[in-house]
């Protein structure tokens, strides 16, 4: 195999995963790759300093000029909007498949969904950005919760209703239970990341326990089982 010339940039295959491109590499990036690089670094940057962080400092971290940032995003608000979209409104089609696989028991499907979901979406950066977004503009947090309701809470409740009463109407109580499950999973992740030797050290077991509780609670709301 021919060795690369001394001083030439490493190939994509040779660059370690997650490595920050060199200045020479950045100059050669296609438009969409450079834009994604800016967004990825903006997520890290704003999670550290908050949304009050200056784009001049972000540009320095990226090794680019501030005017170049504005070639991709017309102003700081547009960049923040893109960061929030990337963080708060991400959803993988595979997760729908996990929930909708009706060959498996409902509880098993929800457990599989949440195990996949937390591996991808729960992170130190995400938690900090959610807090910063809420403090900066409550509308951003409300939009995130609306997204969760549409993509997660309603489908969870729909599958539960289909399982036990043939697809009856979803009640406000059902949505509240789904939101409580989601919040409890988030709390379990937070405890595992910040508090040593907690009951949530085994996150898979925690998710199983929380989902079992959710399934029991939502099933108890059926007309033929309610007290």
Walkthrough of the structure:
With about 230 residues, the protein is mainly alpha-helical. The chain has 2 domains: about 30-85, Homeodomain-like (Arc Repressor Mutant, subunit A), CATH 1.10.10; about 90-220. The chain is about 70% helix and about 0% strand. The protein has helices at about 25, 30-50, 55-60, 65-70, 75-90, 95-100, 105-120, 125-135, 140-165, 170-195, 205-220. The longest helix is centred in the last third of the chain and has 28 residues, at about 140-165. It is elongated. One of its GO terms (molecular function) is DNA-binding transcription factor activity. Keywords: DNA-binding. InterPro entries: Homeodomain-like_sf (IPR009057), HTH-type_TetR-like_transc_reg (IPR050109), HTH_TetR (IPR001647). It comes from Magnetospirillum fulvum (Rhodospirillum fulvum). This is Transcriptional regulator, TetR family.
Topology:
Blueprint lengths: L22 H5 L3 H19 L5 H8 L3 H7 L3 H13 L4 H8 L5 H16 L2 H13 L1 H28 L6 H23 L8 H17 L8
Helix pairs in contact: 2-5, 2-8, 6-7, 7-11, 8-9, 9-10, 10-11
Largest sheet: none
C-alpha Rg (nearest Å): 22 Å
Low-confidence stretches: 1-15, 223-227
Q: Briefly note the structural class of the backbone.
A: mainly alpha
Give the overall shape: elongated
Report the end-to-end length measured between terminal Cα atoms. Answer: 74 Å
SS field, number of helical segments: 11
Q: Roughly what fraction of the amino acids lie in strands? A: under 5%
Helix content: 55-70%
User: Which H/E pattern describes the elements?
Assistant: HHHHHHHHHHH
Task: Say how many strands there are.
Answer: 0
**Average pLDDT over all residues:** 81
Give the number of domains.
2
